[in-house]
Design brief:
By secondary structure, the protein is of the alpha+beta class. The protein contains twelve helices and 14 strands. It has three domains: 130 residues, Rossmann fold (3-Layer(aba) Sandwich); 154 residues, ATP-grasp fold, B domain (D-amino Acid Aminotransferase, Chain A, domain 1, 2-Layer Sandwich), CATH 3.30.470.20; 68 residues, Dna Ligase, domain 1 (2-Layer Sandwich), CATH 3.30.1490.20. Strand 13 and strand 14 form a beta hairpin. The termini are far apart. The structure holds adenosine-5'-diphosphate and magnesium ion (MG).
Length: 378
Amino acid sequence: MKSSDKIRVAVLFGGRSAEHEVSLQSAANIIQFLDPALFEIVPIGIDKQGNWFLDHDIFVKSLEHNNVPQLGDDHSAWFTPEWVGKPVEKKTEKALLPSTGMMFDVIFPAMHGSMCEDGTLQGLLELADLPYVGCGVLASAIGMDKDVSKRLVMGKGIAVAPYLVIKKEEWQYYSDRIAQQVNEKLAYPVFVKPANTGSSIGITKVKTPDQLAAAINEAFRFDVKVLIEKALNIIEIEVAVLEALEPNCDPIVSVVGEIRPRHEFYSYDAKYIDAEGADLLIPAAITNEIKEKARAVAKEIFLTLECEGMARVDLFVDKETNQIYFNEVNTIPGFTQISMYPKLMGASGISYSQLLTHLIQLAMKRHTRKRELIRSYV
Ligand SMILES: Nc1ncnc2c1ncn2[C@@H]1O[C@H](COP(=O)(O)OP(=O)(O)O)[C@@H](O)[C@H]1O
Ligand SMILES: [Mg+2]
């Protein structure tokens, strides 16, 4: 295939999110494994201040040295979100890209967390009329919010851990009343979580009432809404779900994986800092009956939350009763080669490169479908 026939994929990485560093690792892997016979890659970095830039040279160099890419100060070409969806020749002086045609055909957002995975970026890409990988605005926003996603899933009769939601102002004025409610309605231990973070950022397991206020204050550093959730005695399982390429077909549901944290819970350190922080078991060490139930529940959650493209559905299984609980959905799950989503798909017969191609094809199909909609009515 000639270079000009290839699909030009902009891989977006970094971002104004507490999960910036995780994104750099996901993007590095995606760029390495996108099929070079089909795709031309345009890496676009977003730094923590929200500046966008094209920096192909530096990115590739750091990949060669097998390092995680960094966003330094020496960006060779600046880029601005306003250029998204515009023809290339008017926009950049530096000949980083061919001088005709569009800058890119499709966007692969390899970014996690707020302003990346929560519908905001997806909204920008909708406005720019560009195809992009993964969930649309609605499912991205719902999936990011641990409270709203739980409410919708509960509506389908799927269990969630009992929880309370508090807003920052409520906590400022009614902290005593909230502490009392935690005692009466949940009992300790509890998990305190920002409603909209990922990677366990801002999450504390609270064992006694005297630790509650500090945990809530910590969570409010990251969000204006916080969940206080009963800590369950559970096995953690995860299921990867992928939209089918054919219309009207059930999504592809992976085998079930299990996370066995070696820390008190699956914390940021257990996920990313401590190489021995958790064991990932594929398949999960649970009975076939529970696995099948979990897969059916994961599919139902994917459909209920109107997910598109991909989502990793994280569930709990009660160690005593085997009851399945919905924990959360990740609409842009970790995407390194050793991350659960690609590994689960791999164990289900879809290789990392095939998965990337499948996701890009889905993005382009959705864009074509949406283009057919009527936008004026007179
Ligand atoms: N209700 C709960 N009961 C037991 N463990 C929990 C509960 N909620 C969270 N955890 C633990 O905390 C981890 C992170 O919580 P989670 O809600 O998945 O946040 P994140 O989106 O940051 O991954 C989970 O993987 C699990 O180890
Ligand atoms: Mg989680």
